[in-house]
Amino acid sequence: xxxxxxxxxxxxxxxxxxxxxxxxxxxxxxxxxxxxxxxxxxxxxxxxxxxxxxxxxxxxxxxxxxxxxxxxxxxxxxxxxxxxxxxxxxxxxxxxxxxxxxxxxxxxxxxxxxxxxxxxxxxxxxxxxxxxxxxxxxxxxxxxxxxxxxxxxxxxxxxxxxxxxxxxxxxxxxxxxxxxxxxxxxxxxxxxxxxxxxxxxxxxxxxxxxxxxxxxxxxxxxxxxxxxxxxxxxxxxxxxxxxxxxxxxxxxxxxxxxxxxxxxxxxxxxxxxxxxxxxxxxxxxxxxxxxxxxxxxxxxxxxxxxxxxxxxxxxxxxxxxxxxxxxxxxxxxxxxxxxxxxxxxxxxxxxxxxxxxxxxxxxxxxxxxxxxxxxxxxxxxxxxxxxxxxxxxxxxxxxxxxxxxxxxxxxxxxxxxxxxxxxxxxxxxxxxxxxxxxxxxxxxxxxxxxxxxxxxxxxxxxxxxxxxxxxxxxxxxxxxxxxxxxxxxxxxxxxxxxxxxxxxxxxxxxxxxxxxxxxxxxxxxxxxxxxxxxxxxxxxxxxxxxxxxxxxxxxxxxxxxxxxxxxxxxxxxxxxxxxxxxxxxxxxxxxxxxxxxxxx
Length: 600
Fold this sequence. Notes:
- By secondary structure, this protein is mainly beta.
- It is globular.
């Protein structure tokens, strides 16, 4: 879905949490490395039909199935290939595909909206195939020792191994040689990989990605990652901006769109507001990242898959997280309605209604959708307009911002006179930041002393501001704001300042190395399938604690009723009365067990 470039900073942050949607991806002629063997999508379809291990859906005849022990190569958070379980989704397609070729002779044929991992100007991003530039380099796997590669690229293998000095399971970036449309009338295939949401396919091994609800609404893959290839990809809070419009001629919900021309009557549409989507990771091992994203949400979309029973442990945990942080404006999306029958969708709907009783989501609209087919996206936009209004902002208060990202934009080898200061990305909570403003960053920089380590606040000036995709002279609340500073970029690289609070010097909350909290524990640990009973905290027990976008570990120093005193491994900057999400180690995961309120 194309969107008109934003002309202003987004007014509101709408978070998304829950399951990702599947999308139309690859030609069935593409080989995919499955269980160590290259298999075409058409072969998978034949296997499924012969074994009967598939589900035939209503609508346009999509097939969804999981073969026994179906394993595909996928990318982990260290930019290394691993194996992951996968579901296969196959459906008819009639239209143009794009054939992407690289200079080493690799190729892949994909739908125009399918994202590929791209190294663009030393930054990694998931880019739709129809948005690729001729200077982009796409992620491919070496797989140098695989017999297929030795046969297909006999003259390239040694050069690649020598050039990249990598193992046979690493990702490298291959320059694009061409992107050409091809007419296609057959089936397309998608692999849904629950743990990673990406997989390797195509001749020579090209890294692919599924489609999400955020991408369907904005045309942008929100999971933009660090520019450091050495560090690889860590799964972070993602942002994607778009604008909502309405057609003056069409009735609701058809009048609502993200385009400046009505898709139904071709009339010019009217701008409603700019919106930033905060896309939080949905994996249970990344709950602390989800909590950091929730801290900057003005409202939330809770995504619940129609083809799963409700509630899943992850859904229960995400809703509890929204409740802890205080997010009350919620719209529920019942996703993947294209892969279930009407009866299944209605049963799933009843389960959702029962699940949200007594929670902040009770009474929230439930919108059935399919991201890949664009079903009910106009209804969803209408619901977001009506149920998640832009909150009132106090622009007269001293400016304050949570640091969600920080990075170094300088390319290796940049001359000293051209080096740009460190960048901090975050969401402004109150007030207005202006270019040349003095700012303070707390808790700041960790300093190692002979006896102990301390944190020292940082002070600098703003030398640039970026909001809504534009360079601006001042930035207000809403959306992700990039704050250019005069800091040494070594301090901001690799998210080094994430979790800090940025604001006018002398106006920031206190910095705490020890805190006393009044705790509120759940009866049962959230996120565990068996709902383990939550016991009271014990002396010297470690907790993972989230406040704002900061994550720290607290060690229980003393307990007295519902008051606990903790020492913090990493100091936090927070007001008295702030809520802190508390997670305890249960089996092999940190599970949400309650929250605390800072007393002092």
